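Design request, tokens follow.
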């Protein structure tokens, strides 16, 4: 009897421990714990730690909580100008609603990746089809990825998935048309450079013409001012002379000096003889001083 009772006690302890362990749920920081009862989710545990469930009636399942990276397979896309390109991208995503994730995707990451791949490719195809190839190449490092993310929007919310970011690792052309595109881009850049050079030369010529015009106007104004000052000086000179010889004696002397100057001007070219008629005004002056 004693042995039988001891055996029963040990069995009871083992049963209690087993039940206790079956009721314990350990949640780690990188996961959600879902408590299911008869296949239905009755509780979601988000905080790490130990919690409890009803043993044998309830069961637990885990879905990842951390940020995940999915490398999307390379795919061909067509640009607005009908050029083929090869897109290679990856997605950063996480489970935002573990209940929806489990109901619609059976809690399987592989199914989520398949849904993400289809959605991202559709968004990428839509965005790229509205951009020219040159525009895509210019914006591949920032704006393109943002446009693809914006186009996805909330389309995956119904699956409990949040797309954090979409990044393009490479967005390249097929090898057979790379060279022609590069040559066209180089030609376009050369045309732009030539346009800037022509504009610079035109601006320089305009500045030169404006400067020459300003110099010409300033020179004309200076010459006019000089002529004005010269005329005023001559007028002042004549006034001074007029005032200096305003009496008869001074006037005669002035006429005499002027006659000598006129005679001197006549004796040019080696001619030292001046022949005057007695009736000449100059001769009259000389006769007047006899």
């Amino acid at each position: 009897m004693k042995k039988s009772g001891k055996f029963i006690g040990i069995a009871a302890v083992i049963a209690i421990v087993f039940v206790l362990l079956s009721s314990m749920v350990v949640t780690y920081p990188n996961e959600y714990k879902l408590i299911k009862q008869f296949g239905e989710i009755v509780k979601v545990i988000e905080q790490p730690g130990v919690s409890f469930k009803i043993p044998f009636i309830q069961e637990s399942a885990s879905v990842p909580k951390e940020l995940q990276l999915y490398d999307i397979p390379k795919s061909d896309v067509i640009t607005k100008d009908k050029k083929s390109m090869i897109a290679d991208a990856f997605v950063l995503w996480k489970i935002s609603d573990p209940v929806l994730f489990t109901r619609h995707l059976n809690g399987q990451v592989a199914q989520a990746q398949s849904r993400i791949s289809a959605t991202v490719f559709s968004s990428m195809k839509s965005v790229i089809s509205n951009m020219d190839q040159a525009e895509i190449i210019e914006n591949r490092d920032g704006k393109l990825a943002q446009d693809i993310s914006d186009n996805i929007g909330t389309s995956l919310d119904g699956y409990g998935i949040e797309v954090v970011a979409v990044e393009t690792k490479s967005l390249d052309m097929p090898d057979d048309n790379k060279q022609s595109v590069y040559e066209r881009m180089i030609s376009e850049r050369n045309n732009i450079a030539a346009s800037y050079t022509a504009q610079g030369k035109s601006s320089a010529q305009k500045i030169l013409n404006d400067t020459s015009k300003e110099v010409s106007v300033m020179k004309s104004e200076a010459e006019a001012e000089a002529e004005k000052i010269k005329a005023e000086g001559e007028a002042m000179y004549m006034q001074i002379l007029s005032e200096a010889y305003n009496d008869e004696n001074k006037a005669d002397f002035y006429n005499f000096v002027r006659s000598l100057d006129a005679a001197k001007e006549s004796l040019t070219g080696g001619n030292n003889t001046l022949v005057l008629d007695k009736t000449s005004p100059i001769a009259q002056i000389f006769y007047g001083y006899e």
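Comment from the thread starter after seeing the answer: thanks! The first helix runs from residue 2 to 23.
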